[in-house]
Request: fold
Amino acid sequence: MITSSSSSVRTGPCPAHLWIFSSIGKKTIVALTGIALILFVIGHLLGNFSIYLGPDAMNLYAEKLHDLGPILWVIRLGLIAVVVLHIYFTMLLWKENRTARPQKYIASDPIKTTVFARTMRLSGLIVLAFVIFHLAHFTVRVVDPSFQEMHTLLDGRRVHDVYAMVIKGFSSAPVVIVYVVGLFLLTFHLSHGIASLFQTFGITNSRIRRNYECAARVLAWALFAGYVSIPIAVLVFGLGKGVGQ
Reply:
């Protein structure tokens, strides 16, 4: 029996693999993971604002998340995967730019170098360290072991007192300084990163660039103001005074 050469098994690099590790593929993955992280940052802030509604509101919000059970862990693991991909492909692009020629954006009109652009790698690494500290502080609760013992009653249920934990956590000036600095660097990172998304997807020209760069900075600083307002409200203005002491 004669076998046609067309029926033989194809060999060679996988097209998907070639695209993923191409310059455009890497930039697209960085952009998509960046969008996912921005949406998380916005959603997380909206949830955190429940602290201004009082202990019951914040503890109820925390319990609704806890009641998701396995789904919450799927979300957490997915978020970790997004962070890892974002950092990994960002570093690949940085290495590519260092060892080869400067890579251009998809569009032919790149964003001018700014302090935000020049500090992207450094701010990103410091923000990663800050996120690890934040998880150790309020999620794993190893920075202050007393957080583990904070409980309260909510609709007849004994639940973890997240409100008291946050109040006590932000009653420390050194901790608040760490958060303010970390959030400040996150703002630097977002200021350039959000604007870069438009260029990565080719949505740019000299006429609209100034508008989306301005919008990116407004959003980044609005997030900074929102997040920083909570530790400042606790430490400086006495939000929740007497709780968790």
Residues 177 and 231 are 9 Å apart (CA to CA). The longest helix spans residues 70-99. Confidence is low (pLDDT under 50) at residues 102-111.
